[in-house]
Amino acid sequence: MKIAILKERASGETRVAATPETAKKFAALGLTVAVEAGAGVIASITDDAYAEAGVTLGNAAATVKDADIVLGIQAPDVALLKGAKPGAWVAALFDPFTNRAVVDAYAAAGFEALSMEFMPRITRAQSMDVLSSQSNLAGYKAVLAAADVYGRAFPMMMTAAGTVQAARAFIMGVGVAGLQAIATARRLGAQVSATDVRSATKEQIQSLGAKPIFVENVAGIEGEGSGGYATEMSEEYQKAQAELVSSHIAKQDIVITTALIPGRAAPRLITDAQIATMKPGSVIFDLAVAQGGNVEGSVPDQVVVKHGVNIIGFSNTPAHLPADASALFARNHYNFLSAFWDKEAGKPMLDEEIGGAIRLTQGGKVVNERLLGA
Ligand code: NAD
User: Fold this and answer.
1) Using N-to-C axis directions, what is the helix angle for 322-339 and 20-28, rounded to 10°?
2) Which of 140, 180, 197, 358 for a ligand 1 pocket mutation test, highest count of atoms within 8 Å of Cβ?
3) How far is the CA of 333 from the centre of ligand 1 (A)?
């Protein structure tokens, strides 16, 4: 069996889908690993480091030639896969709801597209969950990026020249990214508060030493929500949330928004009128900017100044930490394939629960229920 890893070609992508560490582990399973020359350079992995791990390096065509499995961060253009075995597996991010044409092209080419973002939120799949591994790093980076733009310090400092006040940071959306954002802002010395629609997050916020700010008069989502995810909230809830946010946000220096709803545009959490109540020099980092944005007026990869408030957000936040993001993504890939490794068959055999959830195309057709229903 041959496994192939191409250089990522999407604009702004810095990550690579295998590291020397995971390449060695794949080799130990009996796989041949091929990596396109230069694929790891931006993630600080040299071709020599891959070669030392037993990887074959070459151009794109040589890398995919006769491959049984192709691993990616973002799904490669189907044209690049010419020469891979018929029916080869391609495991990567497909962004299937947005990029339906790519999914259709994979079906037409006869490849089996495995969408890593469709990995179910079940305990045994946690180590394969790229959304979690990348969101965690994104939450950390969002706080650092906000701190960098903020013209003041985060921690309280008592100096001979007088006292510097601690920054107040508010985290909206306490999933994987939000929890890491709370922890990071706390470590930097900010006073942190946070909110979510899922009541289960209240305790998590408190356990990290932050203050929960919750809508109390309208019911939110009790517990975890389906598969851990939020859904769109009622109009009544949205109104109550807007009032709560309006009174809280005016006192904040830093706001990090992380709210997402799978398969939908990100919910709008902050309006222009609310931004106008904030202090000049405050910073909002919109982690959902690439999914439509939680914040009115946010633009990917730009610092937008509105009412003296800096609004920022990256189109691809994990790509700002190429080495760690690659290391974790590559381990997610390895954990996934090795969990299904069938020694006798000498290849991975997926089960229905996970295979059925992530498989987008098979036998020339789109087969995923979430896409067929859409
Ligand atoms: P996400 O990226 O889908 O959303 C981020 C957060 O925004 C969520 O907490 C969500 O509730 C919140 N949100 C949505 N709409 C909102 C609104 N209008 N206002 C405020 N907040 C809003 O979430 P995620 O980081 O992927 O994690 C969601 C849950 O899944 C968490 O409970 C997490 O622990 C769980 N999870 C479980 C597994 C597993 O068991 N394998 C893996 C990863 C995550």
Assistant:
1) 10
2) 197
3) 22
Non-local (6+) Cβ contacts of 344 within 8 A are none
What is the C-alpha to C-alpha distance for residues 7 and 359, in angstroms, rounded to an integer? 23
Per-residue confidence (pLDDT) for residue 374, from 0 to 100: 59
Kindly name the residue from 229, 268, 315, 338 that is annotated as catalytic. 229
For strands 309-312 and 341-342, give the pairing: unpaired
* Confidence (pLDDT) at 114: 98
Q: Which of 310, 331, 240, 299 is nearest to 20 (CA)?
A: 331
Place of tokens 């995971």: 22
Q: How far apart are CA 267 and CA 262, in angstroms?
A: 11
- Report in angstroms the alpha-carbon separations of 189 from 21, 49, 164, 287: 35, 38, 12, 21
The span from the CA of 260 to the CA of 102, in Å, is 23
Q: Is the pTM of this model over 0.90?
A: yes
Q: Residue 263, class by beta-carbon neighbours within 10 Å (0-12 exposed, 13-18 middle, 19+ buried)?
A: exposed
Q: What is the pLDDT of residues 86-135, one digit of tens each?
A: 999 999 999 999 899 999 999 999 999 999 999 999 999 999 999 999 99
Q: Which amino acid is at 97?
A: F
Tell me the pLDDT tens digit for each residue of 28-64. Answer: 999 999 999 999 999 999 999 999 999 999 999 999 9
Q: Is 258 helix (H, G, I), strand (E, B) or coil?
A: coil
**Which residue reads 């229920």 in tokens?**
369
**Half-sphere CA count of 301, side-chain side, radius 13 A:** 6
